[in-house]
Amino acid sequence: MISINPNPVVPVLPKITDRTKIDVRYALIQPFANAHIYWNEEAGDLVYDVEEPLLKDEDKETIRKLEDAMIELINVNVVTEKTPDKIMEYVDKTAKFLISELNLKIEEGSYEKIFYYLYRDFVGFNEIEPLLRDYFIEDIECNGANTPIYVVHRNYHNIRTTLRFKELDNLSSFVEKLAQRSGKYVSYSEPLLDGTLPDGSRVNATYTQDVTSKGPTFTIRKFTKIPWTPIQLISFNTLSPEMLAYFWMLVQYKSNIFIAGGTASGKTTLLNAIAFFIPPESHVVSIEDTRELNLPRENWIPAVARVAMSKGGVGEIDLFDLLKNSFRQNPNYVIVGEVRGREAFVLFQGMASGHPSISTMHADSVDTLIKRLETPPIELSPTLVNSLDCVAIMTHALIKKNETRRLREIVEIVNVKGDGVVMVNTPFVWNPAQDTFYFKKESKVFEKISIRYGLTIEELQKEFLNRSKLIYELYRRKIFGFDEVRKIVVDYYRNSKTVLDKFGIN
């Protein structure tokens, strides 16, 4: 049987600040599909080229005949529920049976390429399958028929690909496939799709030309099975070791943290990184509209909202329902993917009653965030808003002509007065001119922790310094692996002195 590896080893890509010097190639589906990212002088920008086997005209005709015949034979639901090896075997046997039955003539060496395309189109997501297999891609965007598909790459950001749906019918069929795999339905009467693919990726699509003039569109926000570790974020200069050490302290001592920022500014990425520091024995409940979080722990309930099964809202379970229910599950930590409406009241009631929480919200500053919390549709009282300990503001940044993400500032909430005036302390800021991070020792949250837990400020500062040194040492030694970093954090909770000694930190 032909071997296909849809999950090759994730490569380490070079850090190149000059986009005109980028020229990298790595495997997506071994040994058939590769990504080639390079600077195109004619386009004046980066190009993402999906390299797949070249087919002769007779091979294309063979694939067309096989696909027409396989549509009648293959049950896609059965195929996608099997293990990868069983899927390969199933497609291989079916294809060979049809080749024999249809008396198709195939040149030696052509069958492997034909098999790849059959696997890609029946089991995978057609032309988009290699992009979905790219660990570095966060978003896939199609703006209509006969327009380039764009991707958001973790290292190289927005890139135009060489892929496009040339025919309107093909694009419509693909959107139908996205709907079917999401367990949803699209039609001319219901042309909007918002669903989740089997791997957890979020898909939003339009179906008809009268809704979007260029024809059907789709955006896929990929679900990351292996999220960035906190140490990897330092390697991207998203934040500093001191910022991570600060979050580690706050998480251990059950403070309430909000992460604010614009769309795709890195809020969920930072949330995942902060969640690394939740003590290993803690019981965590997370609540999301669409599954994006991936926490490195077993004692965790990931809850996802459910849309209505029919018109009238029957069967709907929203964030408010999930959050209300979560507090009956006796969580040590509650994580809410994004706060937007009435669930905020339940979340802040939980904070006030001693359930530490981490959440995100769309806002570009602390003032904006507080206003959103205190005005409709949320309308929290200043007393409840005071349960919040700190806000991290994520932002898009242009550094040396490259678009990237930075943690702009960490702001501590000292007091929210009845008239809405907010007293704050800002222990961490990012300087965009120098692309460096600054921090001051004075922390109002450390003062709260000192009072709650009977620790001196000096003890907290010493612990903060040790953790900063440890995080920097992990970065210096290039210890980025998901499991490696998680084990060090767990070991630190169990015996911090042993871990510090191991890394030569006094």
Q: How would you describe this structure to a colleague?
A:
This protein is α/β, with parallel strands linked by helices. It has a domain at 230-502: P-loop containing nucleotide triphosphate hydrolases (Rossmann fold, 3-Layer(aba) Sandwich), CATH 3.40.50.300. The protein has helices at 57-73, 76-81, 84-101, 110-122, 129-132, 168-181, 230-235, 241-252, 267-275, 319-326, 343-352, 366-374, 382-385, 444-453, 457-476, 482-494, 496-502, and strands at 23-29, 33-40, 45-51, 137-142, 150-153, 157-161, 192-196, 202-206, 217-221, 257-261, 284-288, 300-304, 333-336, 357-362, 390-399, 402-416, 422-431, 436-439. The chain has a 9-stranded mixed β-sheet with strand order 1-2-3-6-5-4-9-8-7. Helix 1 (57-73) crosses helix 3 (84-101) and helix 1 packs across helix 4 (110-122). The longest helix is centred in the last third of the chain and has 20 residues, at 457-476. The radius of gyration is 25 Å and the shape is globular. It starts with 22 loop residues before the first strand and ends with a helix.
Give short descriptive properties of this protein.
single chain; 506 residues; alpha/beta; Rossmann fold; nine-stranded mixed beta sheet; 18 strands; globular
Terminal CA distance = 57 Å
Radius of gyration: 25 Å
CATH architecture descriptor of the domain at 230-502:
3-Layer(aba) Sandwich
Beta-strand share of residues: 15-25%
Mean pLDDT across all residues, rounded? Answer: 90
Poorly predicted tracts of residues: none
Estimate percent helicity: 25-40%
Helix vs. strand class: alpha/beta
Q: Can you identify the CATH class of the domain at 230-502?
A: Alpha Beta
In DSSP terms (H or I, runs of 4 or more residues), the helix count works out at 17
Seen as an oligomer or otherwise, the chain set is single chain
CATH superfamily of the domain at 230-502: P-loop containing nucleotide triphosphate hydrolases
Largest sheet: 9 strands, mixed
